[in-house]
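Example record

One chain of 356 residues, shown exactly as stored in the release files.
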Amino acid sequence: MPALLALEDAPEIVALGGQADAVPPQIERVGERRHPPTNAGWTLVGLPRAAADAHVDVLHAPAYTAPFWSPVPVVLTIHDISYERNPEWYPYRRDWMRRAFYRWSARAADHVLTVSWFSASEIAEMYGLPAERMTVVPLGVSGEFTSAGAALPSELPSEVTTPFLLHIGDLHERRNLAIAVEAVLEARRHFGALPALSLVLVGTDRGTGEALSALAARAGSPEAVVRIDRVEEPVLRELYRSATAFVYPSRYEGFGLPLLEAMASGAPVIASRAASIPELTGDAAILLDPDDAPGWTEAVIRVTQDEEFRRELCARGRARAALFTWARTARATMDVYQTCLAQSAKRTRQKVTRTT
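Predicted structure tokens for this chain:
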């Protein structure tokens, strides 16, 4: 949002609904209109009514769901469609309803924003959307994660000791973290008497955390896996800067913002050669098959032991991350708003011409 407001042709942003204390003071807020007391009721009834009350020109729905009808053009952001490709990862009994809602929202929207060419191809195939109704707008990385923009150093959490590998993100089945645990355990056996390497997992447990800890415990090294639910931003930045490497063995990502933050912070990256990850990292990371256990172990050992190689990966990562700025994201997003407005005005003129 700050990057949008910093544009020369910055839009006037109005927040529709939501908690008043969550809206920045420089942003106008329009309260919720009466609607059925569900998320679907808000999206389908309350949101278009609030848009009409606010007299907005474009309605941007930033996360998967959007009204099926609106008085103004609707721009919808879809980050990925993992729920369609791998519904077994989301066993909630009513997940079919959520998937249907997402699908209808995408087809009803005037334009869809997504964060990678990988996600664009997935959305086009699954939802049948033509290319002209989608725009790829990659995310950016905050300058706080770069060495130039870094704030004063913060202390690491008490349970974290160096050296350590780092993963940021929910502990979810699709993140494939067991292979990272196995790689750390094998690396510890390889290093022998050297300081023990650990894997620090920062994120909400979505059902795999206990199994990952148990894997380390069965190997006789329960301290090899450190789980932390959440940390404040200064501590997060310090974790990135202090990590021996950042590991991301995920099987499916629409973008992977932690990868970008890790590269900007100067952390060497070891990641899966899967989904959008190669598109994001380019040649700035070690990319491996998500199931290549020996390859993951070898990569962890090399990055831990080879200081020159680590420095090379750090330099590549910083250069790669510098390509992804919020200013670029804001400019591309604003261009989509303006295109939608122009198309809407054209349709209105054509309708008036036919009527008269």
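Notes: The mean pLDDT is 92.
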